[in-house]
Write a structure and sequence with these properties.
about 0% strand, 3 helices, mainly alpha
Length: about 100
């Protein structure tokens, strides 16, 4: 009976260690996301000609309702900084045509 308790204790210790490691991984990933988000915001601020692509990418890749609503203010703010005649609502317009690619 004592052996079973020792094994259960070791199992629980291993689970606890795995949970701590998962928390460390999640913390590192969240830190990366935070930095990348800040970088993207800075790009939008410093390079307004890239705003249409950023807006298009947000529409394409941000799919969770909570995240979409979180970014509405940001989208409105940078949308006001788009240089005139440079806005496209489709990401396809910002992709190179096959003829434009050098092989």
């Amino acid at each position: 009976m004592a052996d079973i308790k020792k094994l259960e204790q070791k199992r629980q210790e291993a689970l606890d260690k795995a949970n701590r490691m998962k928390q460390q991984i999640d913390k590192a990933l969240n830190g990366q996301k935070f930095v990348l988000g800040g970088m993207l915001m800075k790009i939008a601020e410093d390079e307004p000609d890239r705003i249409p692509q950023i807006l298009s990418d947000i529409d394409k890749y941000v799919t969770r309702k909570a995240d979409i609503s979180r970014l509405e203010g940001f989208k409105s703010e940078i949308g006001n900084n788009v240089p005139k005649g440079n806005f496209s609502s489709s990401s396809e317009a910002n992709r190179p045509l096959i003829d434009d690619i050098n092989f």
